[in-house]
Design goal:
Strand content: 15-25%
Order of helices and strands: EHEHHEHEHEEEHEHHEEEEEHEE
Structural class: alpha/beta
Largest sheet: 9 strands, mixed
Number of strands: 15
Distance between the termini: 34 Å
Radius of gyration: 20 Å
Bound molecules: N,N,N-trimethyl-histidine
Number of helices: 9
Length: 327
């Protein structure tokens, strides 16, 4: 499988070491959420998307079910690129509609989880024999180097509210990378979770079956395996809360007591009882905050699609200077 910017396993390992060393030496210890997604983590996330409390996936799926047809009929893309594709489950609505519109024959799923991506690609090749499937392994936060090989016009989709994992500066950087990869006529399709009753949001990240807790703890398993660390998972607890001022969920792993964790090549990391590692933020948006993010990347929203209860939004955006008439 091709990887974005062709980074080797050794380079990825170096990056993990750096992220862990830097992240765990901050006053508020931190780990990037992309390390959740090894095989087990990807499966746990899949399980999360089916939980009764986790409304995001269902809300987005309902919107894609209704709107993929009209969007593809209007945009007539030659290719669909998907950032953070995962199992590409909801993508089928877009793929079905693109095939039906008869405009496009290429799907480029991009994800950090090579194993998961491979299986997804194999399944899709079976289901869509007329479609070219060209997966790319890589970090979606890096510049998107697909060069001129991508047929035009393309839709670059970033679904699942994964944008929420990035702080405003990181989100702007990511959207600027998207804008840099876009040509006139290309469109950006963003799925974003909207601000709502904080109790509903908090429930989505504190499910009654403890799947989210398992998902959260899994990042420690990844560090144990990849770095030979000796995190004792029974001495960390899942915690997730909504920050009303910053409009975001914060997910933490809280140390149950004073402890020292050994991480070869990084060093010993001390935890006080009650001290936490922040493992994820999940930002929630409204029309204005999305417009601000887009305009910082020289994009503008052409369409704002939401459900009656304003649970979730699909946003179609284009380059600021794009005069292409399609909606
Ligand atoms: C995949 C980043 C959108 O933030 O809701 C789900 C990940 N974390 N439950 C989210 C997640 C805990 C999810 N995203």
């Amino acid at each position: 499988m091709t990887s974005i910017a062709g980074r080797s396993d050794a380079e990825l390992h170096t990056e993990l070491l750096r992220d862990v060393a830097c992240g765990l030496s901050r006053p508020q210890k931190e780990l990037p959420p992309k390390y959740f997604y090894d095989r087990r983590g990807s499966e746990l996330f899949d399980e999360i998307t089916r939980l009764p409390e986790y409304y995001l996936t269902r809300a987005e799926r309902a919107l894609l079910d209704c709107w993929s047809g009209p969007l593809m009929a209007a945009l007539r893309p030659a290719a669909l690129v998907e950032l953070g594709a995962g199992s590409a489950d909801k993508t089928r609505f877009l793929l079905d509609a693109m095939v039906y519109a008869g405009s496009g024959a290429l799907y480029v799923p991009i994800d950090v989880s090579a194993e998961f991506l491979d299986e997804t690609a194999a399944r899709l090749r079976d289901e869509y024999p007329t479609l070219g499937i060209e997966p790319l392994v890589g970090d979606i936060a890096a510049p998107l180097g697909f060069g001129s090989a991508l047929p035009a016009p393309a839709i670059i989709a970033f679904l699942g509210s994964t944008i929420g994992n990035f702080d405003p500066a990181g989100a702007s950087r990511l959207l600027r990378n998207v804008a840099d990869a876009m040509r006139p006529g290309d469109r950006f399709l963003l799925g974003a979770d909207l601000r709502k009753d904080p109790r509903l949001i908090e429930r989505a990240y504190n499910d009654s079956q403890g799947v989210t807790a398992e998902f959260n703890l899994n990042v420690l398993r990844v560090l144990n395996r990849e770095l030979g660390a000796d995190f004792d998972l029974s001495r960390f607890e899942h915690r997730a809360f909504y920050d009303r001022a910053l409009h975001r969920i914060e997910m933490h792993l809280v140390s149950t007591d004073d402890q020292v964790v050994r991480i070869p090549s990084v060093g010993n990391v001390r935890f006080a009882g009650g001290e936490s590692i922040r493992t994820e933020i999940s930002g929630k948006y409204d029309r204005e905050s999305i417009a601000r993010l887009l305009s910082a990347a020289n994009m503008r929203a052409d369409r704002w699609i939401t459900d009656a209860a304003s649970t979730y939004a699909l946003v179609v955006a284009s380059l600021d200077h794009d005069v292409d008439p399609r909606s």
